[in-house]
Amino acid sequence: MKGIITVFGSSRPLPDSTAYNDAQVVGRLLAEAGYAVATGGYMGTMEAVSRGAAEAGGHVIGVTSAQIETFRPIPPNRWVKEEIRKELLRDRVTHLVLENDGMIVLPGGIGTLSEMALAWSLMQVGDIAVRPLVLYGPTWRATLTAFFDADYIRAQDYSLLQFADTPETAVALATR
């Protein structure tokens, strides 16, 4: 195994949706490249990445949280091979951000945005080593382009982000 790539994304996409299918391809490509995948371990794109990796013979890590399961009582998805269980959501997110060799951020909501922002911020201040932080899809490009303001964000900090429009590009950038 070459390392671990964390993949963040929404719990909402259903099987056979474009978002689910793209996430499944990301998981498969990461496994084929020799990487383990780590996700939040539940449904949606987390399940799709796990499924793609597992079906390609890869190692799947699901980082779960008792706190999440109090409002959404479901077990980890069936493709998780190794569960790392945290009591609190913040500990789950911290683990996913810290324990990897690169990150891919698929489309998502508030949780995905917070995971991306935490990873970016920790790299910016040197709390974690700079590593690939790849934002997949047009929504991230539009959001971060609108957010970027040179009065508040240095160009060198903005350059910590990489953008990808295909699963293949996302995996290539994350595994450099």
Task: Set out the fold topology.
Blueprint (H helix, E strand, L loop, with lengths): L2 E6 L9 H15 L2 E5 L5 H11 L4 E6 H6 L10 E5 L2 H10 L3 E4 L4 H15 L8 E4 L1 H10 L7 H4 L3 E3 L2 H8 L2
Parallel strand pairs: 1-2, 1-5, 2-3, 3-4, 5-6, 6-7
* Topology, number of strands: 7
Helix count, DSSP H or I runs of 4 or more residues: 8
Low-pLDDT residue intervals, each spanning 5 or more residues: none
Largest sheet entry = 7 strands, parallel
What does this entry look like structurally?
The protein has 176 residues and is of the alpha/beta class. The chain has one domain (3-174): Rossmann fold. The protein has eight helices and seven strands, in the order βαβαβαβαβαβααβα. It has a seven-stranded parallel sheet, with helices on both faces. It is globular and about 45 Å long. The model has no long low-confidence stretch (mean pLDDT 97).
At a glance:
The chain is α/β, with parallel strands linked by helices. It has eight helices and seven strands, in the order E-H-E-H-E-H-E-H-E-H-E-H-H-E-H. It has one domain: Rossmann fold.
Keywords:
176 residues; 45% helix; 19% strand; 7-stranded parallel beta sheet; alpha/beta; globular; Rossmann fold
